[in-house]
């Protein structure tokens, strides 16, 4: 039974990407293809994955430009119809709205604040408020512009859910299964089930699942199954 897991397919090897999808599709709802995949294989790579596996795609391009350019970029991938397409909420309301209007059949997904940014980084960029308040403002702005989904750090889920209500889809990376927080660069983490309880609709997970590939497809499938069981209680 698939769980609300979005698997980060972070690889430049198309064959590996397909093997990962094949091994995990019983437990994963959506596959995230990001800049690394898209800049290597383009729209045709995304279409190939979609047509071979009939899976939902989270196209993580994090678009951020003037509204006209973002609308044109969204048009350019319109035919491959990912379920989600990311843009930066900090591109502003007109930019998010331009993306929404360009591809009404795709859930424009607004990234609030990258979790890689510290409070000091935000201050240096010129943000007036701390990350939590800024993320809530950005989420609110994006939803008002028509974004149907939001990406935030797990620590911001509750505040964003309170601000935007039950309808927008909230997606969070930065989750780690209980007892497995070490070993890579994610720092401020939550477990997948805690993130869902806090109000997220999906968790984005990469290495806790893809890292098991070194032990083979069955090990990777079991890693996905374990996280699915954790979420589903
Ligand atoms: O391997 P890991 O589980 O850390 O992968 C998480 C995925 O989510 C990666 O594709 C990473 O780029 C992405 N991501 C993140 N933190 C953010 C935004 C995206 O980890 N704030």
Explain what the structure shows.
It is a single chain. This protein is α/β, with parallel strands linked by helices and 233 residues long. It has a single domain, classed as TIM Barrel, CATH 3.20.20.70. It is 45% helix and 18% strand. It has ten helices and eight strands. The protein has helices at residues 14-24, 35-53, 67-76, 93-102, 119-125, 131-144, 157-164, 192-197, 207-210, 217-232, and strands at residues 3-8, 28-34, 56-63, 84-88, 107-111, 149-151, 169-172, 202-205. Strands 1-2-3-4-5-6-7-8 form an eight-stranded parallel β-barrel, surrounded by six helices. α1 packs across α2, α1 crosses α10 (217-232) and α3 packs parallel to α4 (93-102). The longest helix is centred in the N-terminal third of the chain and has 19 residues, at 35-53. The two termini are 13 Å apart. The mean pLDDT is 94. The structure holds cytidine-5'-monophosphate (C5P). Residues 8, 10, 34, 114-115, 173-174, 186, 204-208 line the site of cytidine-5'-monophosphate.
